[in-house]
Amino acid sequence: MFKMISRFSDGDQLFQAEKMSFDISNTKRFLSGLISLIFALILLPQESPAAPSAEISYEITQPDGSRFMAVTRGDEWSNRIETREGYTVKKDTDGYWRYVENYHNGEPILGNTHADDPHPPYLKKHIRPDTELLLLGPPQENADERALAAPVGSFSGRVLFILAQFSDRTGSTTEASWASFVTNNIADYFNKASHGRVTLTAASESSGTTNNGVVGWVTLNYLHPNTGENTDTRNQTLTRDAIVAANPFVNFAAYDTNNDGYVDANELAIVIVVAGYEESYGGSGNIYSEPSVWGHKWSITSPPVVDGKTVGSYHSGAGGYAQFGELHQSTSTDQHQATAGIMVHELGHLIFGLPDLYDTDNSSSGVGAFCLMGGGNWGKASTDTWAGQTPVLASAWVRYNRGWVNNVEGNGTVSITAAGASTTSSANTVYRATTSLGSEYFLVENRQPVGYDRGLQRWLGNSFGGVAIWHTDETQSNNKDDSRRLVDLEEADGTLMGTGRGQATDLWYAGNATTFNNTSNPNSKLYNSSASGVDINSISSSSTVMTANFGAGTPSGPDFVVTAVTLSPSSPGAGGTFSATVTVMNQGTASGSGRRLTVWTHQPTSQSCGATGNQYKVVGTVAAGASASFTFTGLSARAAGSKTFRAFVDSYCQTAESNESNNQYIKTYTVGN
């Protein structure tokens, strides 16, 4: 799980595994390694920090000269190529790109149809490997451990860029241009995103222009590894060699401020700029983007010791490096120096321990473009030339989790200043709505086309604006599970974002949607389907300063909900009997009587007060915050098929509750033959 820093567990241990190399014909070796890896991954909350694809269209030419437009999706650990219409394609052994019809054991099954021809009518969009044969990528890092090691609140840090070129590929950009990114773009972005609480400055070094935070170009006397979409130990090796080559110009010992023998990212953030191209921009199969690397944050398995200090080590989540390609190019005419978005995204991982908030299994886009740690690093204002010139601001959860905003509970009518406005502060831009579960809460912010949030114009249009409501669940460590994410945007229009990166109607404003509560769509229920008590209403028209009313908040008086139903057996046989244990909770602020708890063995329709079920029990008085369980026996399973078990607490509506709409709970089950 990914928790607030005050609630991290100190017992998490790092699992580091060498990248698995296997011969698929050696089944026993493959299965043994896969089972061991999966077992380790189950035990630990892990992720590999990544950079998402820019999703820029580019042209692929077939051997016969035919052409089609393609888009790279995913990140450096898991990616695929699709046609612009969304159909997955792969290059075959004869050089032709064909449509992918399915996957088997992680390998694509190609059809006969060329990707430049119309797709077969039966083909599905966005075909990808079922799941985690993707785990055979680089070693995972412990998300909680990295966040625990990262700074919270006010912070001052140093950034060092090392420019690395090769015997067959030299750098084509200047030291001064990279120094400008360090001193201007990166420093300004984090200062504004943190509301003035983060200050990043250039590292001291003696290469070229001294103390501008840039060393290089340093030459590594071997060929460019051209790892492209397949990040592996070669990326670690070139990072290690670049650090060693930079050592004559940097006193690394001076940055070990806590004298523990390691130079960690919060002491010196090391970024390797690799001559050549950035794969996440150009994409695999693009003739204009080789040789390339895919931008990432990682650590070195065998880190160098320079000036008596270990540099680039994982070091319990505190260390590592960032790496990306020097140039962006997707067509014959759009070559340009890498833009700031990929830099600040990877530094978000490296310095601040932030997880990726896009969906790393590619089944959806996660938070879409609404956060730097989602797809927002590729933000583009209407006045920009290139994607990534205006990276979108970090979302409310990032700023809240890293202590860049105050813990302000929404109460009554509040004024919410746009995250990117010049008048924003740590006290007026993010409001929290607390629920009965400490691990689940909602965050509310205002997103407008001002400041860095102008980058959202690439997806939302020039005149978007409104309140973003976020559902946070700290029992999760990432956004892979679409049904229960670490950070989830509550789309105001009631339409899930899917694989897109968002639209203007995802935000809340007068004329779109203005009430978020237990019965709205989307609603404010907890993930266990019980009411959270959160009621945000009267949301104003879109403006740099918006207002919203935090209404019900924590329920006042008793508030009864059913929190769990357990059947025994879980799938009873037709004509048999079974028992049901129903747990009732008073999530209100005062004790009260739950009166009558009524159950139905099959009732898919919501019931009115006074409805008669199959059995009932008297609940009695339950203290505020307390729970009580009741077991019903001898329930009839009746005919075979899918059934809906319903429980209704205070079913005669005799107790005055702060919320009368959350007393029913359903559980689906199957009656066997």
Outline the fold blueprint.
Elements: H1 27-43, E1 46-47, E2 58-61, E3 67-74, E4 79-83, E5 88-91, E6 97-104, E7 107-114, E8 141-142, H2 143-149, E9 155-166, H3 175-193, E10 198-202, E11 214-220, H4 233-246, E12 262-263, E13 269-278, H5 279-282, E14 292-293, E15 296-298, E16 305-306, E17 309-311, E18 321-328, E19 336-337, H6 340-350, H7 396-401, E20 412-417, E21 430-434, E22 440-447, H8 457-460, E23 466-473, E24 487-489, E25 536-537, E26 545-550, E27 560-568, E28 577-586, E29 592-593, E30 596-600, E31 615-618, E32 621-622, E33 627-636, E34 641-649, E35 664-671
Report what the structure shows.
This protein is of the alpha+beta class. The chain folds into three domains: 142-350, no CATH class; 358-554, no CATH class; 560-671, Immunoglobulin-like. The chain contains eight helices and 35 strands. Strands 9, 10, 11, 13, 14, 15, 18 and 19 form an eight-stranded mixed sheet that branches.
Please tag this protein with its features.
673 residues, Immunoglobulin-like, 3 domains, disordered N terminus
Overall residue-averaged pLDDT value:
86
The largest pleated sheet is described as: 8 strands, mixed
Structural class of the secondary structure composition? alpha+beta
Number of helices: 8
Strands, count: 35
Unreliable residue stretches: 3-47, 132-138
Q: Distance between termini?
A: 40 Å
Q: Specify the overall morphology.
A: globular
Radius of gyration: 27 Å
